[in-house]
Design goal:
The protein has 12 helices and 51 strands. The protein is of the alpha+beta class. The strands form 11 sheets. The chain has an 8-stranded mixed sheet with strand order 24-25-27-26-28-29-30-31, sandwiched between helices. The chain is globular and about 90 Å long.
């Protein structure tokens, strides 16, 4: 035998020995968590595998594991997890830290600027019988939990990585239950898992229980909220929360709530103190959850704030009945009878913890300050904008506010929100401050500046443009702005503020641009008497105090892409020529009782005049492009509405509700304009099908119900919300009259969809979808579409539908915040690195 042959045999023998030793070592460590309801909390042990190159935005939806894939029955230390180009990836042991976190970044440090990697964690739950277990999970990243080969939890909410953020009911089988946690890296790449001993059928996640702060100086009256999980196998139709009264807190009982088996719901309850908390007193609220014979008692200890401290209070939303917090900072020498200016503070992304959004601001003697929570990280748009409106309305019930001195101040995401609100409703605000924020999102996406190659690129670019403040800068001519940015900002490049400042310079609008040459996204520190420089610089306060709201400006310039934002000062846009273009109007009093108007893409508009703008007892002239369209006496209402005719001329309308021409009955209005996400800005109801004729229909209904629960959970955690779900047969005429309806399934499984299917702009056909004159028939075809409800044109109907159970799963995974009026999808939609739709876009102004 040659020397080479001997060497080869020796290496092979060594390799065999290593494999044997590896197998022995693997037998030593197999992660298992023994679980028994009501028993002691188990010790956690995990295996981890990774990192895997993620599949872009769809990283959660690809199976990266070899062998049985994500349906694996067991894993042991040293087992092969996957074959990768860079070599074998094996399962390795991982121990959670003291708070229960497994941090993948500490195991596999990512390269700077590298995002999207995916990692797995594995354990086994060993149960002594079939039963439900409860766990709370924390994650600041995309995470998916697979139990016994089935996805039982999925979260794509970008938020702070808080401990015990999500409540999860786990249906365990007797014996071994394999658990996989799959996490996709973004800014965070970790998860936390805590088991809870819950001997009964009820569990309360105390981390998500909302109790408003108590104060030494006043008797608090506000809303609380309790998150309750149903661990039983039956529905609990009348779950209530009680406040057990004592000498400090009054007794109270919530409205009954329905919680399905294995589901989680949030229950609001009113909290009212009988008196102010005494100095040094420990405040305790005693609560009890009742569901028939089951009950769960616990205590909550509200924070007690001194008179000179900020405090967090709450209101109950009119949209979904949920309880929403906001922080308040009163002037040091606050006087109850005085009317104060109001500064609305708007946080950056992930700054959502209790009271954290106001910690960096100093009290101001001249103004009340509130920090809204945006219901999470919603960019202060859509439900985030509603949050501001509702928080302001609640505050004005408590304190006197000067409506002519309302100010917006936001950092990063909050700065974008400040621009958006100022441009959308310029007549509400006296001045704004936008710090370290985007103004032109196309700067980060240069491809969007080119002509679109596909229909999807076209509507995606349209959505991007409507989110860029620079495109609506004309609107803030009477809203002075204080802008600030760090020249070294690596989070939001300084070019974003520079281009916005340059645009305001061209327009000749009042603003200050304060660029810090030595700092980045965040700088300064909170010191006695003033807040952090990058958000609460004294110059911002000085700037605000110099400005009040513009009263009846002689010139109004306004641009909009939606009739949801159609009014500025004394000008209102009533109808646009085309819904896919921006509308523009400039109205100016060029001489006494002489108004000149310039406009583009406007069919109808209204001028609301008063005796501060014109002499209402004298004739008035209104012209468009030097053509007089009205000359005569001002009506008693001082309101003039004009509509363009087919020949291009404008005529005055005696009644704005009468269009003057025969047009289709259904049009886009300020109440129903789209896109998809607008259906959630007013009270809404989820409706699932109950028609179960045949095995296929039953399977579709089950899938539709799972999709409804998935989107309800997304609303709960993305928007701190509450969702009501009804079966189609339970929908009442009052529901149709007062609510936007979110319908799940298709015309064969949901009777509500069946009733209106033929009247919808896009509808279901056997095994496919009708889009105009086309038929779309493909594997797992589905759609998400918003339109006026044919049964009530003043409300929306939103279809979350599909032709197969798999299509309903795809529908539940789409980000509704990123959609136009409709999208059509199929089995390929989530297969690539991005989301690719079969069709989609915006309807025209007649919902066609």
């Amino acid at each position: 035998m040659s020397r080479r042959g001997k060497i080869g045999l020796g290496f092979a023998g060594l390799l065999l020995l290593l494999m044997i030793l590896g197998s022995i070592a693997a037998l030593v460590y197999r992660p298992q968590i023994l679980f028994s309801r009501g028993g002691p909390l188990p010790e956690e042990s995990w295996l981890v595998a990774g990192p895997f190159s993620g599949n872009g935005d769809n990283g959660l939806y690809k199976d990266y594991l070899s062998g049985h894939g994500e349906a694996l029955r067991q894993a042991r230390q040293g087992d092969i997890a996957a074959w990768q180009v860079q070599g074998l990836l094996r399962w390795q042991a991982a121990t959670p830290d003291e708070s229960g976190w497994i941090d993948f970044k500490k195991i596999w440090p990512p390269r700077p600027g590298k995002y999207g990697s995916v990692a797995y964690a594995y354990t086994e739950l060993v149960s002594d019988k079939d039963q439900s277990a409860v766990a709370t999970v924390g994650s600041g990243t995309d995470v998916q939990i697979i139990l016994n080969g089935e996805v039982v939890f999925e979260n794509r909410v970008f938020d702070t990585a808080d401990v015990d953020r999500y409540t999860l009911v786990l249906p365990l089988r007797k014996g071994i239950n394999p658990v996989l946690v799959k996490a996709r890296q973004f800014l965070e790449w970790r998860f936390q898992w805590t088991f809870h001993a819950a001997p009964g059928n009820l569990f309360v996640n105390k981390h998500n229980t909302i109790i408003p702060d108590f104060r030494l100086t006043e008797s608090v009256s506000a809303w609380g909220q309790v998150e309750v999980a149903n661990l039983s196998s039956r529905a609990l139709p009348d779950v209530t929360v009680e406040v057990l009264g004592d000498d400090l807190v009054s007794s109270a009982q919530s409205e009954p709530a329905f919680i399905g088996p294995g589901e989680v719901q949030r229950i609001p309850i009113r909290l009212a103190c009988k008196r102010a908390v005494a100095e040094g007193e420990r405040a305790t609220v005693h609560l009890r959850v009742l569901a028939g014979p089951d009950q769960y008692s616990f205590e909550a200890e509200p924070l007690v704030r001194k008179a000179n401290e900020f405090f967090v209070t709450t209101y109950r939303s009119g949209v979904d009945g949920s309880v929403q917090p906001y922080s308040v900072l009163l002037p040091p020498s606050f006087e109850k009878t005085a009317a104060y200016p109001l500064i609305i503070l708007m946080h950056g992304s992930q700054v959502t913890s209790w009271g954290r959004n106001i910690l960096f601001y100093a009290p101001k003697e001249w103004a009340i300050q509130i920090a809204v929570h945006d219901r999470g990280n919603n960019d202060f748009r859509e439900i985030g904008e509603v949050d501001i409106d509702e928080a302001m309305a609640d505050l004005m019930k408590r304190y006197r506010i000067d409506p002519d001195r309302l100010y917006l101040s936001g950092h990063s995401m909050g700065g974008e929100g400040a621009w958006f609100l100022a441009e959308s409703h310029p007549d509400r605000w006296a001045a704004i401050s936008a710090q370290s924020c985007n103004s032109d999102l196309s700067l980060d996406r240069p491809g969007t500046r080119k002509a679109p190659n596909t229909k999807q690129q076209e509507w995606e670019r349209q959505l991007l443009q409507c989110r860029s403040a620079i495109n609506f800068a004309e609107n803030v001519g009477h809203v002075p702005a204080y802008m600030m940015h760090g020249a070294l900002d690596a989070t939001v490049p300084v070019i974003q503020s520079r281009v916005m400042s340059a645009r305001l310079d061209v327009l000749g609008y009042e603003h200050v641009y304060d660029e810090n040459p030595e700092n980045g996204h965040w700088w300064g520190r909170v010191e006695h008497g003033h807040g952090i420089d990058c958000m609460d610089k004294a110059a911002i306060s000085d700037f605000f105090q110099k400005h009040g709201r513009a009263q009846d400006p002689r010139q109004v310039v306004f641009k909009t892409d939606s009739l949801r934002r159609a009014r500025a000062y004394w000008v209102t846009i009533g109808e646009m020529d085309s819904a896919d273009k921006k509308a523009f109007i400039k109205a100016e009093i060029i001489a006494p009782n002489n108004i000149a108007v310039q406009l583009d893409n406007i069919t109808q508009f209204t001028l609301d005049l008063n005796d501060r703008l014109i002499k209402t007892d004298q004739p008035l002239s209104v012209s468009i492009d030097d053509n007089v369209i009205f000359h005569g006496q001002v009506p008693a209402s001082s309101r003039l509405a004009f509509r363009r005719q087919y020949d291009g001329s404008y005529v005055r309308l005696a009644d704005e509700s009468v269009p003057g021409t025969q047009t289709p009955a259904i049009k886009k209005t300020g109440q129903v304009y789209g896109p998809v996400i607008d259906a959630f800005n007013k009270p809404f109801l989820f409706v699932v099908g109950s028609q179960r004729a045949g095995e296929e229909s039953a399977s579709m209904n089950d899938a539709s119900h799972r999709a409804a629960l998935a989107l309800a959970r997304d609303w709960m955690y993305r928007c701190n919300g509450i969702v009501r779900i009804k079966a189609d047969r339970e929908v009442t005429p009052d529901d149709i009259a007062s609510l936007n309806l979110i319908l799940f399934g298709n015309a064969a499984t949901n009777s509500m969809i069946s009733e209106i299917n033929d009247a919808l702009p896009i509808g279901f056909i056997p095994k496919g979808i009708r889009v105009g004159g086309r038929k779309v028939v493909s594997d797992d075809t589905g759609m998400i579409m918003v339109s006026p409800n044919p049964l009530n044109h003043s409300k929306y109907v939103l279809i979350v539908g599909g032709t197969t159970p798999r299509s309903m799963e795809i529908a539940s995974r789409l980000r509704l915040t990123d959609l136009p009026d409709y999208v059509i999808f199929d089995w390929t939609t989530l297969r690539g690195t991005g989301v690719g739709f079969v069709d989609g876009g915006f309807f025209d102004k007649y919902w066609r």
